[in-house]
């Protein structure tokens, strides 16, 4: 287990470094146990990474038939909605690579939130049979300016969930529901990557990594893989408030 804090000059260099790491983790996982399970992040930051992974220079390095795609969180909207995290991944990556349709495990945001969460947890438990929590090969996460990650928002109920793998989380800040993996479900991963870009995230990065323990207001502090590696992959602006050396 290790924690690495890495800084890259700009968004493109960050995306390139993340693509190299995803390709390496995929090759290791497929070589070790015949498949690669990745939980995708939502939002906009992963777009550059997804587009890069869809480019032949990257996509030809991945055995997509052995890749299973999950999500770390989803908005409570249909898959064709502009806010859908599934739609973002489909448009930038999944429709451009030969991943098997049956290996795309979408959170069904079009269902009632509690029903969608129950259904997704059942799908995870059927896939990761026998595990106390889902042992993803990689969970890809973003970071909000309020230090939320996935849909684990400050002062929301999901932060306190210790048994479930997936929950519906009501987010007053957004006046909406979200679907999200829980903290223990994320922390059971073999590898977690925080992919964070932009000066607008610098304060949150600083507070999470250097500030006092305050997970209710800084939920990303809760992400500490129990038996896995944690990579903070930052562009220089996002790392701007970290002390020299990270
Ligand atoms: C989502 C997320 C969320 C996201 C952060 C950063 O569904 O929005 O999963 O946790 O990663 O809000 O979003 P940006 O990458 O758009 O800044």
How would you describe the overall organization of this protein?
The protein has 246 residues and is an alpha/beta fold. Helices cover 30% and strands 20% of the residues. The protein is built from seven helices and nine strands. It has helices at 11-33, 46-54, 56-59, 85-94, 113-127, 183-187, 202-210; strands spanning 3-8, 36-40, 67-71, 73-75, 138-141, 166-171, 176-181, 191-196, 229-235. The strands form two sheets. It has a six-stranded parallel beta sheet with strand order 1-9-8-5-2-3. It has a three-stranded antiparallel beta sheet with strand order 4-7-6. β8, α7 (202-210) and β9 form a beta-alpha-beta unit. α1 crosses α2 and α2 (46-54) runs parallel beside α4. The longest helix is centred in the first third of the chain and has 23 residues, at 11-33. It is globular and about 45 Å long. The mean pLDDT is 98. Bound molecules: 6-phosphogluconic acid (6PG).
- Taken from the alpha-carbon principal axes, the silhouette is globular
- Detail the poorly predicted runs: none
Mean pLDDT: 98
User: What gap, in angstroms, lies between the N and C termini?
Assistant: 18 Å
Tell how many strands the DSSP assignment holds: 9
Name the helix and strand elements from N-terminus to C-terminus, one letter apiece: EHEHHEEHHEEEHEHE
Helix-strand makeup class: alpha/beta
Instruction: Tally the helices.
Output: 7
Largest sheet: 6 strands, parallel
The hetero compounds bound to this protein are:
6-phosphogluconic acid
């Amino acid at each position: 287990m290790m924690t690495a804090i890495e800084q890259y000059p700009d968004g493109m260099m960050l995306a390139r470094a993340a693509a190299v790491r995803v390709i390496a983790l995929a090759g290791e996982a497929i070589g070790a146990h015949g498949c690669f399970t990745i939980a995708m992040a939502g939002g906009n930051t992963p777009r550059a990474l997804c587009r890069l992974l869809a480019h032949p220079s990257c996509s030809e390095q991945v055995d997509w038939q052995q890749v299973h795609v999950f999500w770390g969180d989803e908005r409570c909207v249909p898959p064709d909605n502009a806010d859908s995290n599934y739609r973002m991944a489909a448009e930038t990556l999944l429709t451009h690579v030969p991943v098997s349709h049956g290996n795309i495990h979408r959170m069904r945001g079009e269902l009632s939130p509690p029903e969608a969460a129950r259904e997704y947890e059942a799908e995870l438990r059927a896939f990761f049979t026998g595990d106390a929590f889902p042992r993803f090969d990689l969970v890809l996460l973003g970071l909000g300016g309020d230090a939320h990650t996935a849909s684990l928002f400050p002062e929301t109920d999901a932060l306190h969930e210790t048994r479930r793998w997936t929950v519906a989380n009501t987010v007053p800040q957004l006046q909406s529901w979200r679907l999200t993996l829980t903290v223990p479900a994320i922390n059971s991963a073999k590898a977690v990557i925080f992919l964070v870009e932009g000066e607008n995230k610098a304060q949150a990065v600083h507070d999470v990594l250097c500030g006092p323990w305050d997970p209710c207001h800084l939920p990303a502090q809760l992400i500490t893989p129990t038996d896995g590696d944690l990579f903070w992959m930052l562009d220089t602006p996002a790392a701007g408030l970290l002390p020299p050396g990270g």
